[in-house]
Every structure is written in structure tokens, then in C-alpha cells.
Design a protein that fits this description.
Blueprint lengths: L1 H12 L3 H18 L8 H16 L1
């Protein structure tokens, strides 16, 4: 989860092709691992929801 949070932070702070590629690759791995396919969500919104849900579930 910390890697996703870091990818989201770096993607939002440094808007370049390398950060975008790393961010999208991380999201693809999460989708593959979890089986979740958020077609109607943006990648940024998807990661924010994942992080928020993780925090709620681990408290």
C-alpha cells in the first residue's frame, strides 16, 4: 500500500511520462492481483479509494 501511495504522490507531483508509466503499471498489477476492474473510475480515483479502504479496514 505504501508503494501505491508513493506512486500516487510522485505521479501527482512530477507529471512526466516516466511517472505516468510507473503509476499505470502499478495499477495494472493491483488490478491483476485483486481482480478489480474499475472501468468508470480514473486511475487516480481508483488508487485513492484503495488507500482509503485499506486504512479503514486496518484500523
Amino acid at each position: 500500500m505504501l508503494v501505491l501511495k508513493s506512486c500516487l504522490y510522485r505521479y501527482s507531483k512530477f507529471r512526466n511520462e516516466a511517472q505516468k508509466e510507473a503509476f499505470l503499471e502499478a495499477i495494472d498489477r493491483v488490478k491483476l492481483f485483486t481482480g478489480i476492474d474499475p472501468e468508470e473510475m480514473s486511475p487516480v480515483a481508483f488508487v485513492k479509494v484503495l488507500i482509503q479502504d485499506y486504512v479503514v479496514l486496518t484500523r
